[in-house]
Design goal:
The complex is a heterodimer of chains A (about 450) and B (about 260). With about 450 residues, chain A is α/β, with parallel strands linked by helices. Helices cover about 45% and strands about 15% of the residues of chain A. Chain A has helices at about 15-20, 45-65, 85-95, 115-130, 145-150, 155-170, 210-220, 230-250, 270-275, 290-295, 305-320, 330-345, 355-370, 385-410, 415-420, 425-430, and strands spanning about 1-5, 70-75, 100-110, 135-140, 175-180, 185-190, 205, 225, 255-265, 350-355, 375-380. In chain A, the strands form two sheets. In chain A, strands 1, 2, 3, 4, 7, 8, 9, 10 and 11 form a nine-stranded parallel sheet that branches. Chain A has a two-stranded antiparallel ribbon with strand order 5-6. In chain A, strand 8 (about 225), helix 8 and strand 9 form a beta-alpha-beta unit. Chain B has ten helices and eight strands. Classes of the chains: A alpha/beta (about 450), B alpha/beta (about 260).
């Protein structure tokens, strides 16, 4: 089992009532309650930001001390739910702050990069500076990120796949060479920074329900990390992954299965549950409250994927009796968050309790869905720093050793234990396609 | 549209181009908005009493195939110019609304001699000197349409909300996707168009509603300044969706402008 820690690094010190109301200075497209993209950064307090960054650093040190195998970092823009606008910056900082843990990027939103060769350079730096501890995951970026970075959502998938090929080629093929593709044209690819790990750092792909992304990961034999999906959905994802792997000519093993679960522990169950309300701090939407056409803009995914996503959101909102939009008081929002948590605890889609309770729940999850890569999303929202530290310590002292034993008992092994090939191409010795594969319109 | 026939022509690089054709009189080509042909049904029926109307679904919109290679409205203009304004055709009047207005202006800048007159209805396509074009992608399609109306009654009469997953939803999403493919960056304008517009020698009429909340007056002024002799009619009390709010007035204005330029 590969066991890693995650937090969104929330900008928790923002005035919640400001997000719940509308203002005279609001962008005309913003409605009360919208807390991402258009929620004004006049509410960002950099003094509090500095404090929160310092607390996160202390927590990351504790994560390594506690015995985790890795730290997952990510990237989001224009909203309080995540204070990492560049995951390569957090990663670079972790190269100095930690000595042992893997630095797992889930990941760099490559579609929003206008020059993936720069991404190859930055990740190569991080891989060298960390002594080869980088897992360089890539993502398409959420819908809001396309707006924040002014990246065309209708070309997101094409850019993701072409950008990936350029990234891997820049990592692995000696330069200078030329890339004249569809969305990327780079006359001289010759980065003077190459990865320490050979043939290149592992690439893991996180996601939710997008069938196209699952199939992409399977075609490349990259582990797919399900982000907090429900049990039934997770099993469906493994089926889609397995079918795509079979089509690519191999059998998908458990070393290709990853899962991110929210898991907050305290010595006292009541305290854990009280803190866990903070996982619902954005009224249950961990990437901030936003609109369907911003979360999933036209062209961002197939119409079927987009409809599935919108139906999931509507379904969850209905369960929680949530009204979209409209002014709310912080008290009303609090009631709603508690209600959402109740629904989630009932559905067992979140863990909040003692270490023993967490172990029991994780065992059941491992038995049913068998991931070898497990990310424990330990803290979020306004969970106090001391409680976050205690949660990390308890996870390290009690939960992690027990989960390792369960993994061994169930015979679940991760890519590092098995020394799995980093990709299907690497396993088969197939060179990465060059730009001509993408130059369909040039 | 009522008495219109559906005509499909094949293009060399954009597949099947579908169009509605009907009416009698001088030739008139009408290019729809970014939302597709939904707003046109009323005005086309009125125009057909005075013109022989051809209303194509622009490439990638409604019933026409999508050219995956197209990256800008100028690409669509090239396809349309060679499909509905060929040298062999009698020089048609070209009328475009919103995004269609932008594409019509591109066509006129490419080949002004092929057109008898150019009519731009609240066109997109140039950056206003003052004010901003409303960003359609930050609003739902339903809301974007609603914002286009100064007259709530006309909105209610012309449009209903589209339910998730219905054919109408899928069509509007496809139209929005095509708009995204060609006009995302810069948002709904082309930096070079103002420098190509002075080549338009076609008589040009611009119709614009004084309450237009999508296209600010600055866009109209930029077009007027770039195309010599442009006539501008600003309609008081009207919004962006003139063809739905005042279809008869639009038809009258186009008709009298065309008769002035035989």
């Amino acid at each position: 089992m590969f066991l890693a820690y995650f937090t969104e690094q929330p900008m928790s010190a923002y005035p919640e009532e400001a997000a719940l109301s509308s203002h005279s200075f609001d962008h005309p497209a913003r409605e009360a309650g919208d807390s991402v993209l258009l929620f004004s950064n006049r509410f960002f307090n950099p003094k509090e930001g500095a404090r929160l960054y310092a607390e996160r650093m202390e927590e990351y040190r504790e994560v390594e001390r506690a015995g985790f195998d890795g730290i997952m970092v990510n990237e989001h823009h224009n909203g309080p739910f995540c204070m990492q606008p560049r995951c390569n910056i957090t990663s670079a900082m972790l190269t100095g702050l930690t000595q042992r843990v893997k630095i797992v990027q889930l990941g760099n939103p490559i579609s929003t990069w206008d020059n993936p060769v720069q991404l190859a350079e930055e990740t190569a730096m991080i891989d060298m500076m960390s002594g080869g501890r980088l897992v360089a995951g890539i993502v398409r970026g959420g819908g809001n990120e396309q707006f924040a970075n002014n990246a065309n959502p209708a070309f997101n998938r094409e850019r993701f796949e072409e950008g990936h090929d350029l990234l891997v080629k820049a990592w692995t093929q000696p330069g200078p060479f030329r890339w004249e593709g569809n969305h990327y044209q780079v006359p001289v690819v010759n980065p003077w920074a190459v990865p320490l790990q050979k043939p290149h750092p592992r690439v893991w792909v996180p996601g939710v329900t997008s069938t196209e992304t699952i199939a992409f990961a399977a075609r490349h034999r990259y582990p797919y990390i399900c982000l907090n999906t429900a049990e039934e959905e997770t099993l469906r994802i493994w089926k889609v992954y397995g079918d795509a792997a079979e089509e690519a000519g191999y059998k998908a093993g458990e070393d290709l299965r990853g899962y991110l679960m929210r898991c907050h522990v305290q010595e006292d169950e009541d305290r854990a549950v009280a803190n866990a309300v903070e996982f619902e701090w954005m009224q249950g939407e961990f990437t901030g409250m936003s609109k369907p056409w911003l979360i999933s803009p036209a062209g961002y995914s197939s119409a079927e994927s987009r409809m599935a996503r919108m139906k999931l959101i509507a379904d969850r909102d209905r369960l929680a009796g949530k009204q979209s939009g409209g002014e709310k008081t912080p008290e009303q929002a609090e009631i709603q968050k508690k209600k959402l948590l109740e629904v989630e605890l009932e559905r067992k889609s979140i863990i909040a309790g003692t270490p023993a309770q967490a172990i029991e729940r994780i065992r059941r999850w491992l038995e049913v869905t068998r991931p070898s890569i497990l990310f424990l999303w330990g803290n979020d929202g306004k969970i106090p720093h001391e409680d976050s530290m205690r949660c990390i310590r308890l996870l390290g002292e009690e939960v992690i050793p027990a989960v390792r034993e369960i993994g061994d008992e169930l015979g679940i092994h991760d890519p590092f234990e098995l020394d799995s090939p980093v990709s299907l191409a690497a396993e088969r010795g197939v060179p990465t396609p060059d730009a001509s594969a993408w130059a369909v319109y040039s | 549209v009522g008495d219109f026939a559906r005509v499909v022509v094949d293009t060399p690089t954009s597949g099947a181009l579908s169009m509605a054709a009907g009416g009698e009189g001088p030739d008139l080509v009408v290019l729809h908005r970014s939302i597709g042909g939904d707003s046109l049904s009323g005005v086309l029926a009125v125009l057909a009493s005075k013109f022989s109307v051809v209303a194509p679904s622009m490439p990638g919109f409604d019933d026409s195939e999508r050219p995956d290679w197209a990256r800008s409205p100028r690409d669509l203009a090239a396809i349309l110019l060679h499909s509905v304004c060929r040298p062999a055709d009698s020089r048609p009047v070209l009328m475009g609304l919103g995004l269609g207005g932008w594409i019509a202006a591109e066509m006129a800048a490419m080949s002004p001699d092929r057109l008898r007159a150019l009519v731009l209805v609240a066109p997109l396509g140039v950056k206003p000197g003052t004010g901003e074009i409303t960003d359609p992608f930050l609003l739902s399609t339903d809301r974007y349409i609603e914002v286009g109306f100064a007259n709530a009654e006309a909105h209610k009469r012309s449009f209903g909300a589209s339910e998730l997953g219905t054919d109408s939803w899928l069509r509007r999403e496809r139209n929005r996707e095509m708009t995204t493919r060609i006009a995302w960056r810069p948002r709904m304008f082309d930096q070079t168009l103002p420098f190509r517009l002075p080549y338009v020698t076609t008589p040009t009429l611009i119709l614009w509603g004084e309450e237009d909340a999508i296209v600010p007056r600055g866009v109209v002024d930029r077009y007027r300044d770039a195309i010599l002799g442009t006539e501008v009619v600003a309609l008081p009390g009207c919004g962006h969706m003139l063809e739905c709010e005042v279809p008869e007035t639009v038809c009258e204005l186009v008709s009298s402008f065309v008769s002035k330029h035989e």
